[in-house]
Amino acid sequence: SGDDADEEDEEQDEDDDDEEEEHPASADSIPPPPALRVTARISFRPQSPHYSSLRRMLR
């Protein structure tokens, strides 16, 4: 099951790159804080085993 989680993360990383290419100016001017990207992933996969751990880090 661990390998499956890694594969899903790689797919989402590719999606993030596409979004940055569409808005290169805004991405260079104001880089998004890592916390925002983590929160977005939590909303996509709330069943992730790392969910509780990530929430603790954000607090």
UniProtKB/TrEMBL annotation:
Residues 1-22 have a biased composition (Acidic residues). It comes from the Eukaryota. Residues 1-35 are annotated as: Disordered. This is Uncharacterized protein.
